[in-house]
Amino acid sequence: MTTAAELIKIASEPRINTLHAIKSAHLGISKEQSNISLYSGDRWAREATERLLPHANAMPNNSDFGAYWNSMWSGLESAWTGQKTPEQAVADVETELKSALSDAIIIR
Predict the structure, then answer these.
(1) Going by C-beta distance under 8 Å and a sequence separation of 6 or more, which residues neighbour residue 36?
(2) Using CA atoms, how far apart are residues 23 and 17, in angstroms rounded to an integer?
(3) With contact defined as beta carbons under 8 Å apart, do 46 and 38 qualify?
(4) pLDDT tens for residues 47-105?
(5) Are 40 and 32 in contact, with CB atoms under 8 Å apart?
(6) DSSP assignment, residue 41?
(7) How far is CA 71 from CA 5, 12, 61, 95, in A?
């Protein structure tokens, strides 16, 4: 596992992320956080989590993420609408990302 992935794993640990969430008035990123007393004891966090967490997702904080997101969305849309098979859409997204991000992305 890369260093970056290890750091994300550590920072995403429910107890550590709970400290961040409560101190910065953010939602937790996992349902496990609602079992931690610091989080469940905070009225705002508890109520916001019940209403918002089922609809939330995380997005990377990376300046190149827009290129990734646009390519991925275009590929999903073309597969959903039947303009391309899922395999064709994935191949197109891969080609587009390699072109746009070159060495900044690793596709396996």
Answers:
(1) 14, 15, 18
(2) 10
(3) no
(4) 988 888 788 777 778 889 999 999 999 999 999 999 999 999 999 999 999 999 998 88
(5) no
(6) T
(7) 23, 26, 17, 10
One-letter amino acid of 67: A
> What are the residues whose beta carbons fall under 8 Å from the beta carbon of 12, sequence distance 6 or more?
29, 30
Global confidence as pTM: 0.52
Q: Cα(93)–Cα(108) distance, rounded to whole angstroms?
A: 13
Find all residues with CB under 8 Å of 45, minimum gap 6, and list them. Answer: 21, 22, 27, 28, 39
Q: Quick one: pLDDT at residue 74? A: 95
